[in-house]
Write a structure and sequence with these properties.
Helices cover about 75% and strands about 0% of the residues. With about 270 residues, the protein is an all-alpha fold. The chain has one domain. It is globular.
């Protein structure tokens, strides 16, 4: 990633995406893994929703709110994980040194990882949405333009977290790899995926409203339960995402510079 000034190259980004695509399609196990966990979670929560609906729960009867929540959570989690896994594969292959001396710029590398996260997410989420229709009659695609707003905000958050985690791994080596797999679960209770923000204690509600996904999940419940699209929530989520994404990029560049100064770019072990 030379420091020599040069224009953004779509060819270099495309080459990196092609590299990750060849790696992904060459492994049947990798492709199955993309579908396996989202499908298991969707079925588990879907059957729980069916049970609760049979017990007269208005919440569970409201338009597949639990199934919708778990699929939106998978967009957030898999968006971040898809970014981080592609980065980690460079660490496993000890290929970062080769990338560093190539013309590839840091922002082109990040752009390729972002594109690849969408590719990996698409492979995993599309079959699961079809399964949700077949098993529970819930059609995520029927959310229309609201789904586009939900998706954009969740992906921005996932990318921001993925960029930050990649910086940590760059600086600290594979000893920090665990953050790639676990950091998003810190968001799970605070972003109120399966329950309204009002359930939280007042002091935790303040923290929850600082996280962009909270607005998405509240917006999803408003749409499915009250049949109202809350555009105001989406705008607030987007504004917070811009701040979060900017901070993540700043942290990544700072961690990358620190890794260069300390010579840890070539030491990718633990």
């Amino acid at each position: 990633m030379s420091d020599v000034a040069q224009a953004f190259s779509f060819r270099r980004v495309g080459a990196m995406v092609l590299r990750y695509w060849y790696l992904l399609r060459s492994s049947f196990a990798r492709l199955i893994e993309l579908i396996y966990w989202p499908a298991v979670q969707m079925l588990m929560w879907g059957f729980l929703q069916t049970y609760l609906a049979g017990q007269g729960s208005r919440y569970a009867q409201a338009g597949g709110v639990l199934v919708g929540a778990v699929m939106l959570w998978d967009i957030l989690f898999r968006g971040q994980l898809g970014f981080s896994i592609s980065f980690l594969e460079e660490m496993y292959a000890r290929n970062l040194g080769n990338l560093m001396i190539s013309p590839l710029r840091a922002y082109e590398f990040v752009a390729a990882l972002m594109i690849m996260s969408i590719v990996r997410l698409t492979i995993g989420i599309v079959p699961v949405t079809l399964m949700a229709i077949a098993f529970f009659g819930f059609n995520l695609w029927a959310l229309g333009l609201a789904l586009a707003a939900f998706f954009a905000n969740l992906m921005l958050t996932g990318w921001a977290v993925g960029i930050f985690v990649s910086g940590l791994v760059l600086r600290n080596g594979l000893g920090a790899e665990t953050f790639a797999w676990s950091i998003m679960f810190l968001f799970l209770p605070l972003t109120c995926v399966y329950y309204p923000v009002a359930v939280l204690p007042p002091w935790l509600q303040t923290a929850a409203w600082l996280l962009p996904p909270t607005y998405v999940f509240e917006g999803m419940r408003a749409l499915l339960i009250d049949h109202t699209f809350r555009a105001d929530l989406m705008v607030q989520a987007f504004a917070l995402n811009i701040v979060l994404f900017s901070l993540a990029v700043f942290a990544f560049l700072a961690l990358l510079a620190s890794a260069r100064r300390n010579g840890s770019l070539m030491q990718t072990g633990e």
